[in-house]
Design a protein that fits this description.
This protein has helices at 2-7, 22-50, 76-90, 96-122, 130-149, 175-193, 199-218, 221-227, 238-256, 265-283, 286-292, 294-313, 323-329, 334-357; strands at residues 158-160, 168-170. Helix content is 67%, strand content 2%.
């Protein structure tokens, strides 16, 4: 909005021509989202405290987490507000992909907020019934997948295989179910990872950087041709969205770092995970997403393994799932688990970027 207005004046003042460049607006997006998070964060935290929107902690969880009771939750509202406002300021609002990703962020955030509200109003950890929660997520993801599939591009139903130059799979009618699986899976993977102060939001920030680079390249004809990746016109604008997500993540981390002043809640984790999944589907980096968000995948797999093992054998593979709790139970301090997981997340993001060259 503001970017378009300023660029329209470049004939009168030539330096304003800089607003046409995605890289410049992406830089502004990081700083703006960070500033907005730091500005509105304290106000939203005070509001959540006043409304007694506080964390409900499971009695069967790590004993060290019992002290987190009473900490404000649903802080993901800070993230959604910062990202949305920043995108509206510096993004190209004529870009259809930008609106699709915003729809994903806000819709999954609404589902998460409803879940958070039910937990708070009932004063326990049981929120929305699983069938309703997953049903709404699948509905939103289906809308997104159908809209993305309907775009007239040569790669609408194609799946790119990392590390191989010309290996592509045409999923055809199965593309929409696959895209729904990616988006819903990503949303819930971030949700499962959100169990320690700053863990999930730090990993989202790392993933945002990797996604920004991947998406910028996909939307740049010369770079895409050189690196032999899908060239997807218009997707480069989503670099601004990724940058806004990075800025909002850094801003929220200011309040969510250990010991946390606020938790993001499902409103934050579901919305961020849904946005990451949507970005992967639009940019045709669905498989690379599993590398970029490798920690999210590991967290999800650890829960699946734990549940299957306990139901089939009566034994647990991990001391507690998701796996970050396993390491806590082994005696790792919470801060050490968080930083070590961040380190692995950074390494996995570098591996995902290496897939661009190793083709």
């Amino acid at each position: 909005m503001l970017a378009s207005l300023l660029y329209s004046l470049h004939d009168m003042y030539s330096p304003l021509n800089v607003f046409r460049y995605i890289t410049f607006r992406s830089t502004l997006a990081v700083m703006t989202a960070l500033a907005l998070s730091l500005l509105v964060g304290p106000m939203i935290i005070r509001y959540l405290k006043g409304m007694r929107v506080t964390q409900q902690v499971r009695d069967d969880g790590p004993q060290t987490h019992l002290g987190k009771r009473g900490t404000p939750t649903a802080g993901g509202l800070i993230i959604i507000a910062a990202i949305s406002s920043t995108v509206l300021l510096w993004g190209d609002l004529n870009n259809r992909f930008m609106w699709i990703t915003l729809f994903s962020l806000i819709s999954f955030g609404a589902i998460g907020y409803w879940d958070d509200w039910l937990k708070i109003s009932r004063r326990n950890t049981a929120g929305m019934k699983a069938r309703y929660k997953f049903g709404l997520q699948i509905l939103v993801a289906t809308v997104i997948a159908v809209v993305v599939r309907s775009q007239e591009t040569a790669y609408a139903t194609m799946l790119s295989i990392p590390f191989f130059k010309k290996v592509m799979i045409d999923l055809g009618i199965f593309y929409v179910p696959f895209a729904v699986l990616v988006i819903v899976g990503s949303s819930n993977a971030v949700n499962l990872t959100d169990g320690l102060d700053g863990l999930a939001i730090g990993l989202v920030g790392i993933a945002s950087v990797a996604n920004a680079l991947l998406i910028y390249i996909s939307g740049h004809s010369q770079m895409a041709q050189y690196l032999q990746v899908f060239y997807l016109p218009g997707t480069g604008e989503l670099t601004v969205f990724c940058s806004a997500m990075l800025g909002a993540s850094l801003g929220f981390l200011w309040f969510n770092s250990h010991p946390a002043e606020v938790f993001m809640g499902d409103v934050g984790s579901l919305s961020l995970g849904g946005a990451l999944g949507t970005l992967a589907v639009i940019s045709k980096h669905e498989i690379v997403l599993a590398v970029v968000g490798g920690i999210f995948v590991i967290e999800t797999v650890s829960v699946i393994i734990q549940v299957v093992s306990f139901k089939t054998t009566g034994k647990r593979v991990f001391r507690m799932a998701p796996i970050h709790h396993h390491f806590e139970q082994k005696g790792w301090p919470e801060s050490k688990v968080i930083v070590r997981f961040w380190i692995v997340g950074i390494l996995l993001s570098l591996v995902s970027l290496a897939t661009l060259k190793l083709r």
